[in-house]
Amino acid sequence: MNAVAWALIGLTLGIAAIDWWAVASANRPLEYLAKPATMVPLLAAAWAIDPVDSAMRVWFLVALVLSLAGDVFLMLIDDDHPDERLFIAGLGSFLVGHLAYIAGFVVGGQTTGRALLGAVLAAAALSTIGPRIVRGARSVDAKLGPAVSLYVSVIGAMAVAAIGAGPAVAAAGAVLFVTSDAVIGWSRFVGPVPNHRLVIMVTYHLAQVLLVLSLAVAR
Asked: Using CB atoms within 10 A of its CB, is residue 188 exposed (0-12), middle (13-18) or buried (19+)?
């Protein structure tokens, strides 16, 4: 890590905190600015960081750009009159973003024992909540079922790759990402989650920061 990267991480967290406050206070105009703005310095941090593997960084940059696109699509959804096309666009952006993260973690190297542990943990977690979210999505729109099912599988694979990569910071980032997406799916398709929008954003932003930090951690 270098001073520029640390400064950009700090800026990311500062803007993220503004977004969390906007979500908590239902200040949508501010949220529309702060949510996508959070990812801009994080992208710059990923570019400025001293990576363990430069190819891994390229994949992470792709993932972050796709995450930014997904942020915008999901942000534009009206909770009272949701447009499923925006949800699918956001889902697709994040799905491909997770594939990019997987590619980055694979390029950076995997440890078989850790990957197997990740597979067991991911299977246990996603088999518990995944089917209920998929059934709920299918009940809303039959076309959503397969898309959500595929997404659950891909984010599970991302978590396995992150844990298999070795650094605890990568594993923690993946777990927070899964948590954020699980709350999205549960609150949208199964039932209410207290303060779900705030929980989603806090876990999501912290997940992205930790994943970027993992670029600089030796395997």
From this structure: buried
DSSP state of 81: S
The residues, any chain, with a CB within 8 Å of residue 22's CB and separated by 6 or more, are: 28, 30, 31, 34, 35
What digits encode the pLDDT tens for the residues 120-178?
999 998 889 999 999 999 998 888 899 999 999 999 999 999 999 988 999 999 999 99
Mean pLDDT check: name the lowest of 2-16, 71-85, 120-134: 71-85
Q: How many residues does the chain have?
A: 219
Task: Find the distance separating the first CA and the last CA of the chain, reported in whole Å.
Answer: 15
Provide the 8-state DSSP code for 52. S
CA gap 60, 215 in Å, rounded: 9
Domain boundaries, the chain: 53-216
Instruction: Let me know: does 137 contact 182? Beta carbons within 8 Å.
Output: no
Largest CA-CA distance found in the chain, in angstroms, rounded: 50
pTM reported for the whole predicted model: 0.94
Non-local (6+) Cβ contacts of 187 within 8 A are: 193, 196, 200
The Cα 106–Cα 161 span in angstroms is 7
160 CA to centre of own chain: 14
